[in-house]
């Protein structure tokens, strides 16, 4: 038996914590960030607990691709295709990963600078 995912995202997946869900299917869940840094700030997560990209294995390839396509579809639904959007994956505490469950940030609705950070 695998250990229960105790992150906030695991609790959201199980329905133990409320979230403003914008999309859900058998493999993924997307919800608005509770502390947005842009007018549109949505998190897309796999329902399967993967800590970060270093935790991903070859058999996660389809799931990782699905996360990207799901993010694209949500960005389109949010009307971000014209002005664009940014996808961010923080991979490790040193670069800002604060929830250790893989997630993609969809950011849009304002200008962003480059390089980030």
Written overview of the protein:
With 117 residues, the chain is an alpha+beta fold. It is 20% helix and 21% strand. Strands 1-2-3-5-4 form a five-stranded antiparallel beta sheet, covered by helices on one side. The N and C termini lie far apart (39 Å).
What's the name of the CATH homologous superfamily? HIT-like
**Strand order in the largest sheet:** 1-2-3-5-4
Query: N-to-C terminal Cα separation, in Å?
Result: 39 Å
The tally of structural domains comes to 1
Lay out the secondary structure.
Layout: H1 8-13, E1 21-24, E2 28-32, E3 40-46, H2 61-77, E4 85-88, E5 104-108
Antiparallel strand pairs: 1-2, 2-3, 3-5, 4-5
Short summary of the structure?
The chain has 117 residues and is α+β, with helices and mostly antiparallel strands. 20% of the residues lie in helices and 21% in strands.
Main features:
HIT family, subunit A; 5 strands
